[in-house]
Amino acid sequence: MKDELKAVEREAIREIKSAKDKDALEALRVKYLGRKGVLTELFKKMGEVPPAEKAEVGKLVNSVKASVAGALDDGLKGSSGAEEALAEKIDVTLPGRFSMPGKIHPITKTIGEISDIFISLGFRVVEGPEIETEHYNFEALNIPLEHPSRDAFDTFYVKSRSGKYLLRSHTSPVQARFMEKNKPPFSIIVPGKVYRPDATDASHSFMFHQIEGLVVGEDIKFSELKGALTIFAKQMFGPKTKMRLRPSFFPFTEPSAEVDISCSVCGGEGQKCSVCGGKGWLEILGAGMVNPKVFQKVGYDPEKVTGFAFGMGVERIAMLKYGINDIRLFYENDSRFLKQF
Ligand code: DAH
Description:
By secondary structure, the protein is α+β, with helices and mostly antiparallel strands. The chain folds into two domains: about 1-85; about 105-340, BirA Bifunctional Protein, domain 2, CATH 3.30.930. The protein has helices at about 1-15, 20-35, 40-45, 50-90, 105-120, 135, 175-180, 220-235, 290-295, 315-320, 335-340; strands at about 125, 130-135, 155-160, 165, 185-195, 205-215, 245-250, 255-260, 280-290, 305-315. Bound molecules: 3,4-dihydroxyphenylalanine (DAH).
């Protein structure tokens, strides 16, 4: 009987170890420990055991039962992980799933860089609506009816029963909106999207970004405009950057200027420079002293306050700063382009 028990134990453990899955283990549990199982049947034969050996054989039966049950439990624990993996068809050799971490878009980054420079000069950031009225986009800025940008083909008009609206063609309307609600002195910059029905090519887009600047107070001078823009140009494009102002015209400033910086690529030296075309200068923005007519329209007294304004294209600044030669790259969302910044 003792030998028989030991043989059963050995055989059971061997079978349990080579069991392939949960079902096989369950079958072995029934085979050995079930109501009609091998060990149960052996236990029934206890009556045949001579009385002197009964206690010993009893103990042995219990220890064999325990060791078979233990082996079955261990088998179940060990098999479950591998078995589930098989059931779910997990291929542990496949590379893991990962999401590409996002990055700040170069336009957002450039707006941030420009804003930081002006914030350090005491400006604060203000925003305005992208859907505008003709009044703020044109009239408030002294842009006359015959001005080409007011032509239906030069501006995106929005049909609406509540009035005539358009997608703003520049950030300048926020000048008038802000002045109507605030008293000078103040220095503000206004970043935002603007829209023009331009055919898209390497340097044009129907939507782009501008940053407007407006400083109003008593006795604000042209020299302060030049000073602020010089600091901006040097901080944005490097300390060696030179700046020049050319006389120009904008209806909302008088006098007006176009502002150039020395070419950041060739430093003004390159005769064949593809960025400045060998001219050595790059136009970066328009500026001027606020036209007294603009002040009058918002109820300011042009005898008491003066101010300067400027407006720049963010894409153009970013293209010059980072050497980007096609504006469309900003809007294509190609991660190979975007991850470089
Ligand atoms: N609004 C002008 C444009 O979109 C840019 C501009 C020029 C803004 C001169 C100004 C300024 O504030 O003074 O072309």
